[in-house]
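Might I ask for a little of your time on a matter of protein folding? What I wish to show you is a protein chain and, alongside it, a tokenised description of its three-dimensional fold. I should value your view on which stretches of the chain appear to form regular backbone elements. You will find the record immediately after this paragraph:
***
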Amino acid sequence: MARIARRLDDVSLDSPTLVEGFPGVGLVGKIIVDHLIENLEMEHYANVHCEGIPPVATYQPDSNELVTPVRLYVDADRGLLALQSDVPINPKAANAFADCVTGWFAEEDVLPVYVSGLPRQREDQAEEPALYGVGAGDGPDRLESVGIDTPSEMGMVSGPTGALLAHALDNDTTAVGFIVESDPQFPDPDAAKAVIEGGIEPLADMEIPTADLVEKAEEIEQARQKLLSQMQQATEESSRAEPIRMYQ
């Protein structure tokens, strides 16, 4: 049975903002949501039971309690929700999942914020990823009010994030989508930082620390350069496996 099963009954929310974090290009949405939950010390608010979620159970560090692989976390003081997913949603089941969660969004007057990575290789790694905002319902007006750029070219959002945005469009409800240039091969904390600072902070009118995202970006770039070097030497050396530390 599709439902949002609350774990915290004493939390009161007034038109909260929700940030979605499904795995995608550059893992941008997931990096953002994981970062918000950790840095803002958000509480596990609810388990999500929806059609389309793989039938698996998740366990967490330092706890013997099983939870669903898709969960909601809350920071009541900031009026912020985060949708964390440990698993991808099958595109064929994305519409059913969208029907499930957006019904709850409407009941709670939630402003959903969806994140999608735009595959692109930036030759200059110092160049900040381009960030665009799109929306349905009152979403475009909210984006315009805080000065977030419109897309520079035609595009399409697919997967579960695309289904959620399409659901908002079909049902004339308000939703916001952030589209950010992202590395198609590696997790991209730089893109996550761009979305937080250029999109979520002005839209939700809050400040979010991002210093440790910069550290993750440096670690990933070092791992990337090491991998490229190993690939260049592959024709001169015998095969071997070596661990490469990367954000996951």
